[in-house]
Amino acid sequence: MKIESITLREIQMGLKAPFETSFGVSHHRRILLVELVADSAVGWGEVTASETPGYNSETTDTAWHVISDFVAPSLIGKTVTNATECPGLLSFIRGHEMAKSGVENALWDAEAKLKSLSLAKLLGGALTEIASGVSLGIRENPQALVRRVEEELRSGYQRIKLKIKPGKDLDYVAAVRKQFPNILLSVDANSAYRLGRSAPRQA
Known about the structure:
single chain, globular, 6 helices, three-stranded parallel beta sheet, alpha/beta, 33% helix, 2 domains, Enolase-like, domain 1
């Protein structure tokens, strides 16, 4: 596969509802999409970095810079046997895993299209369905969280992840677990706790 071009596009999407984590409240997302053309096949990838460096050191803007100035010039014009070669070609770039992964995923998508395979088949997947989960932001009180979990379970989600932070943790998780004792449940504090201040374990 000869990598012919890499194009970046930024879109902005408003969330259906505010999403609160220990970092703050989000009302919209800036999303960076990667369009990669290889042997005339068009593949797409998404950079999962956030707008700010609160989760890790990468942001939407740093990803745009790294892809534009380092990743794309290193890949365009190169011929690869398959997408597994992409990490080796980008190994000189330290860190910036989200930026590199967005481009690599686009290359995998292009390869799947060239081989007339689903991406799942190309990666060796055998399942036709997966158990989908949902991540729920922090709510104003435990009762509101329980109601939201109930709504998502009715929608068909089979795994529930709760965002928590100090002061909005044990009571919230306990209320959900009491109401739904058998669901697959986990919690995520996004590094909001420090040594000496315990967080609830995965339920």
